Write the structure tokens for this entry.
Amino acid sequence: MAVYSIEDETGLAKELQPSVMPLAEATKVIDFPSDARGKRTLDIGAGQSACTARLRIQGAEAYAIDPRYTDMAKLDEETSRAIEIARSRLSLHRGAAIGKRYYKLMQAARQAFKRDYRAHNRFYINAFAGDLPFDSNSFDFVFSINCITHGLDVDDVIFRRAIQEAYRVAKVRSEIQIYPFLLKSNERIRKYHERLLQEESLEYSVEAVPEFNSNRLRIRKHQQ
Ligand SMILES: C[S@@+](CC[C@H](N)C(=O)[O-])C[C@H]1O[C@@H](n2cnc3c(N)ncnc32)[C@H](O)[C@@H]1O
């Protein structure tokens, strides 16, 4: 059986390009705590997402990890390129006005990220999903958007390790949410994800996010 190695995850991380989801979308794909005050939260593979900034405004002790935090200037450059591409694609398929609107929302998320990063950079940590630099049972809410099941899952061992790490750092009686999950169009991926989760004996549910024709995964931690 293949064994997890940080070198393999480093190689894979290079292929998973940054992008940024507008905040209004992120709050639909993840069911955030209604009261974040005093909660310790973790966003895995956050890139320039605004979620951590928003959680902090709501009173959380909010952390984000991403291996690209090692070089913020490069992350910024790569994200700029990615959102230009997203804008062109959207404009081509759905019209220039929609492309422009979405581009503005992505830029707004980045601005919120940058403000929060400037003021609270110790909460943005350079790390990999498979090797979280946090104590076990230390977060009230752990989530990941377009990372664990949107890139890391091409490698069975790295995917499993990322899930194990998210589970390890979550407190007992807390939850982990991951988006997207079980893309309706792909039965093979659905079976593959579910098999791995069942092998880990995790208690999970899959919830529809109809607006995006996809689902989120919710894992409940009942024991250590
Ligand atoms: C598609 S972006 C998603 C960013 C953000 N979550 C959002 O949805 O707005 C994927 C992010 O995952 C990060 N990433 C890649 N490999 C990773 C790994 N092994 N562990 C944690 N994050 C990783 C990338 O650097 C990138 O910022």
